[in-house]
Amino acid sequence: MTENSVEIIGLCKSFVRPEQGSIAICKNLNLKLKKGKIYSIIGTSGSGKTTLINMIAGFENYDSGAVVLDGGNKAYKVGILFQDSVLYPWKTIMDNMLFACKNDFENPKELVRAFLRKAGLEEVENCYPNELSGGMQQRIALLRVLLTKPDLVILDEAFGALDFQIRNQMQELFLELHSEQKFTAIVVTHDLTEAIRLGDEVLAFYGRPLEYEVLNSNITSEEDKENLLEKINKIYSYRKEYIYEKRVLQNSSRVGVWRESRI
Amino acid sequence: MKSYTLQNTIYKVLQVVVSISSFVGVVLFLKYIHWDIGIRFSYVPDVQTIVSELLDIITQVEFYNNIIISLGRVYCGFLLAAFIAIPTAVFIVENSKIKYLLHPIIELIRPIPNVAWVPLSIILFKTVSGSILFITFIGAFFPILINSIEGLEHVNTNYIKIAKSFKVSTKEMVLGVKLPAAASNIFTGLLVGMSGSWLGVVVAEMIGGQSGIGYLTWVNYTMVNMSGVIVCMFVIGALGAMSSWILRKLYKMLHFEMRTEL
């Protein structure tokens, strides 16, 4: 019984582009993600975040190394949620949910109804996705992923297109469901507030080949905040890639979405 | 709600009336001024003759028999093409080796217009009906096949990734995700294929047929009955439009119009 949900060992991946030749996305990358924890990943566009999660989810092959899920458990389930194309538009909400779980449970319809009830969405089961708002669609998509009781949940900028209020609700729902199901999660985001709020650990991805640094996401004082900002800006401004401003964190502090607020 | 639906229906009917009458109006105007530059409008029969021809033709049982024969040929050829082309497209997209094997053959045969198949089909098939059915089949097969391949190859990858994460079977992936996701392309192929079938049936009936609306058009032409030819042309147009309308309704019934991309 391993304590690691995901273990990445010496992972190498490169793409061949006609004009640029071979581009190494990652070279001898090692990473361990512990069971039941939420890992936020921040990083510039094109840093290789999506490629990495595609390799973890098994959607993309790698050149060498290994991605070991739960010590090689074949029954390990991975759930994934994207920013767009979240629900199948030709299926009703009920059919969308059933598509995810009909083979796994005895009475899937009742299970789906219970899940929808939990999110206050029981009235939409016969609607089509385009009859619902973007926020509702995303909430249902999140429920659909968690309906299958996955061991690992990957959110690929899943809440990126939502307004602040809906995003906040989604984050709350996600944390609530995480405390119930205790899955491991990878949250890829460009929003530092979201990364800190959701993640037990924040991984800052940078460079090519890919490197990362683990940041402290347990912010309890102004000093912690200053230290975190300094560290992040050191990582990114050094490479002239990305600069987080202090106001981002100040705003997040004001609206009370800090990690300590949920502890 | 009801008044809105009624208003909408009236608006749609008006659109059709205005569209057709403006076309007829232009033709009549050109006939009235005896336009003779490049195209001769002086030989176009007047509206009165066409209407009396139409009234005469719709009383004849033979006219309806010919329509039913042509409809039967078109729908048989079209349905056969759809039932073969869509699974073939799935098979090709799912097996890259098959794709490379079949691609040159498809590209070679695809550009041949279905009219060019008429002489060969007469030799290939023992009966005239068989050869006409083959022409309608060929007219629909390639548009459906090519559009289906195109649609299946460009299914949103996130749809597939999500389905894979649910560990669905290949059958569920094809029937539940890929085909519905490619529905708009497949539907375009069906619409183009339907036109191809109509084109094929009319040409084949004109050349080698002994019955059907194409044959009737040709008979009217050989008898120099231009008003009969025009009536038959309008009937072919109306039948083609009706076929497209049925396909569109079917598409809506299957809820594929719920696709946000459309």
UniProtKB/TrEMBL annotation, chain A:
The highest taxon in the source lineage is Bacteria
- The yes or no answer to whether the keyword Cytoplasm is present is no
Gene Ontology terms, MF aspect:
ATP binding
Q: Which InterPro entries match?
A: AAA+_ATPase (IPR003593), ABC_SmlMolc_Importer (IPR050093), ABC_transporter-like_ATP-bd (IPR003439), ABC_transporter-like_CS (IPR017871), P-loop_NTPase (IPR027417)
User: Which one Pfam family would you cite for this protein?
Assistant: ABC_tran
- The ABC transporter domain covers 6-232
* Keyword tags: ATP-binding, Nucleotide-binding, Transport
**PANTHER family from the UniProt entry:** BICARBONATE TRANSPORT ATP-BINDING PROTEIN CMPC, SPERMIDINE/PUTRESCINE IMPORT ATP-BINDING PROTEIN POTA
Name-wise, this protein is: ATP-binding cassette domain-containing protein
Q: Can you name the source organism? A: Claveliimonas monacensis
UniProtKB/TrEMBL annotation, chain B:
Membrane topology annotation? Multi-pass membrane protein
Q: Where are the transmembrane segments?
A: 12-33, 74-93, 123-146, 181-204, 224-247
Q: Does the keyword Membrane apply?
A: yes
Keyword tags: Cell membrane, Membrane, Transmembrane, Transmembrane helix, Transport
CDD domains named among the record's database cross-references: TM_PBP2
Limits of the ABC transmembrane type-1 domain: 67-248
One Pfam match, given by its short name, reads: BPD_transp_1
InterPro entries hit by this protein: MetI-like, MetI-like_sf
Q: Where does it live in the cell? A: Cell membrane
Family (UniProt): Belongs to the binding-protein-dependent transport system permease family.
Protein name according to UniProt: ABC transporter permease
Q: Which organism is it from?
A: Claveliimonas monacensis
